[in-house]
User: Fold this.
Amino acid sequence: MKLGRSNDVQKYLCNDCDRSFQERPRFVCECLIPGYQLNCQSCPQFKEFLGLVKQKMNELRFLSFQELQSLKSSYTVAETLD
Assistant:
């Protein structure tokens, strides 16, 4: 979050650790499994991934049992073709 300016330089404050920065920190995620490590919880890439998972879960929530079974079958067939 923005913390103000000092000598025409924007300052930022980390929402997680309360450290201040003179430039916006860049996050590099090197996790092979999203969310596996504790520090992943504040990673922007993990948050984006989690948002996509929630969106997909909302879409699946309204499917009938038969539609879910059909979806499962199509994924099983696709896996055997690979």
In short: The two ends are 45 Å apart (CA to CA). The CA atoms of residues 30 and 65 lie 37 Å apart. The mean pLDDT is 77.
